[in-house]
From TrEMBL:
GO BP terms in the entry: transmembrane transport
Segments passing through the bilayer: 65-87, 99-119, 131-153, 174-193, 199-220, 306-328, 348-368, 389-409, 441-460, 472-493, 518-538
Name of this chain's protein: Major facilitator superfamily (MFS) profile domain-containing protein
Keywords, ordered alphabetically: Membrane, Transmembrane, Transmembrane helix
């Protein structure tokens, strides 16, 4: 069309409100700023979260079970708040402004967190309140930041341009690459500073990093493409209206007495015949099809169907979300009791073992993007190499394998502790090298490359433009609810397996006498059940047609 010939990107404008020109905006020139900002922000986040269990069980004096529950609840909250952040961004602020404002809130939270670490913990109730208040303020800042910056980055690639559309699949790969490359320094340098020098300095550096992330993002302002906002109500309101109207009309029978053939065919000719109950949102109380401003247009019904189409896949992925919360909590506690020495004078911080996951991801993503995807394109003809569903299913299978290995290694660690008479000595180091943990971390990292990126791409691609931030926040809720479910499981299991005084059990403070291996077997089973459910839903899943605003 004319717009394509003139290099104008349909539905997008530049920073001055003019139609966006392909040669001057968007694509990799813009997404590089976004990827850089994302990597720096992840450094800040993991600088806090990766070693949090050590801080809670150390200076704050919490038990292992309480600390793991606190982290899971905080992380889960941070991954559920994007549902609120997406609503605010799509309804009022827009993605760009939401990213800037949430970044400023993020920096404030990290500043307060650093201040709390400077205080003398005894612990004092007021100091503890400041610490947790800062953590949850940080979670609030993430609420708008996480879904908006990913959606905004993907927006820089034009749906209607073949080369840019193909590159968008690579964007999701490189976005996750940067999200894992950023934390590597945090897992090595910051964890060492926090464990051996100062928690205040270890928290202050992430605050500076968050400020740098905002600066990098602002540098790209003039090169970004911005979606032209529709004059109509926001997509979230439109979808909500569809569900409300369909529920109100659930008893209404479509009229067959109308002589207008075009009106009779309106409902049957919706693009998707899935979820037919939503078609009733188009009906008036007398069963006829409504038109005009009062009625709900067909596109709005299609928007609602596109969103609900993802719900079964979302539900079946919750098991994966539970497993994903383990490396920063129980995996770390597992590593604390093992021989982590390299040479005669250096001990690897237990939290830094998560570095292996990040390192695996940054090594495997280029291999996947430059080798697997081109070969997949030749074999399947799919621009992404394989479908998103195939990618997610592969990752969930690998995740199950990782938990099986974790259970077997933990069983060996406990057996070694018993053989050396260390089962009753909680703080004793077991003469078993941390290298035994490497396989579970590596397979876990490869699993992430398949599952996380597949979910991001699926939830972005399968909804209309106005719902992309919402869909990505729903994807993030998989991880958030997974953390809550993990915390709930830990609480229930500890109550059931501990004695009347709350001692012992699967999550005993004496890790050498606990049974994390039982929990890992349970998680392997939960994730395997989720994989089976996912495969069943994937068989009937229908990819939606792109719906332009």
């Amino acid at each position: 069309n004319g717009e394509a010939e003139n290099g104008i990107v349909n539905g997008m404008m530049d920073h001055e409100g003019r139609p966006a020109k392909r040669s001057q905006s968007g694509y990799w020139r813009s997404s590089c700023y976004i990827i850089g900002a994302g990597a720096t922000e992840r450094f800040a986040y993991y600088g806090i979260s990766s070693n949090l269990i050590t801080y809670l069980t150390g200076p704050l004096g919490q038990s292992t079970a309480a600390a793991a529950a606190s982290i899971n609840i905080w992380t889960g909250t941070g991954l559920l708040l994007p549902l609120l952040g997406a609503f605010v961004a799509e309804s009022f602020l827009g993605r760009y402004r939401a990213i800037v404002l949430s970044s400023m809130l993020y920096i404030l939270a990290l500043g307060l967190l650093t201040t709390s670490a400077f205080l003398d913990f005894r612990p004092n109730e007021l100091d503890v309140l400041l610490f947790f208040g800062s953590l949850y303020l940080m979670a609030l800042g993430q609420g708008a930041y996480k879904p908006c910056i990913l959606a905004f980055g993907a927006d820089q690639f034009d749906d209607n341009h073949p080369q840019e559309l193909r590159s968008r699949s690579s964007f999701f790969n490189w976005w996750y690459f940067s999200s894992c490359a950023g934390p590597l320094a945090a897992l090595l340098v910051l964890n060492y500073i926090q464990d051996n020098i100062s928690w205040a300095i270890g928290f202050g550096i992430p605050c500076i990093s968050a400020a740098i992330a905002l600066s990098i993002f602002l540098l790209g302002t003039k090169s970004y493409r911005y979606r032209i906002k529709r004059d109509e109500k926001c997509a979230i309101s439109r979808v909500a209206q569809v569900f409300i109207k369909a529920a109100m009309n659930w008893r209404v029978i479509p009229s067959t007495s109308n002589n207008n053939e075009e009106e009779q065919d309106t409902v049957p000719h919706l693009r998707s015949q899935q979820f037919k109950f939503l078609n009733k949102a188009l009906l008036a109380p007398d069963g006829s099809v409504e038109y005009g401003e009062v009625g709900i247009i067909m596109q709005e019904v299609e928007e609602a169907k596109a969103l609900i189409n993802l719900i079964p896949l979302w539900a079946s992925s919750l098991g994966f979300g539970i497993v994903l919360s383990q490396p920063s909590t129980l995996f770390t506690k597992q590593g604390i009791t093992m021989d982590r020495s390299i040479g005669s004078s250096f001990d690897v911080p237990a939290a830094s073992l998560q570095y292996i996951i990040g390192l695996t991801i940054i090594i495997f993503i280029p291999i996947y993007d430059r080798v697997f995807v081109p070969l997949g394109r030749i074999a399947t003809g799919n621009p992404s190499g394989v479908t998103q569903l195939q990618r997610i299913g592969t990752g969930m299978l690998l995740c199950t394998v990782s938990m099986v290995i974790a259970a077997l290694v933990e069983r060996k660690r406990l057996k070694t502790a018993s053989q050396y008479g260390l089962a009753e000595l909680g703080g004793a180091e077991v003469p078993m090298s941390f290298w035994w943990l490497i396989p579970q971390y590596i397979i876990f990292g490869i699993s992430d490359v398949f599952t996380i990126i597949g979910l991001q791409e699926l939830f972005y691609e399968e909804v209309p433009c106005g719902l992309k931030t919402v869909a990505l926040s729903i994807y993030l809720s998989i991880l958030g609810i997974g953390n809550f479910l993990s915390s709930f499981l830990i609480f229930i299991i500890q109550r059931v397996t501990s004695d009347q005084g709350g001692q012992g059990g699967w999550f005993s403070d004496n890790t050498n006498g606990a049974h994390l291996d039982y929990f890992y077997w349970l998680l392997a089973g939960v994730n395997a059940a989720g994989l089976l459910a996912f495969l069943c839903f994937a068989r009937s899943f229908k990819y939606t047609n792109r719906i332009t605003p």
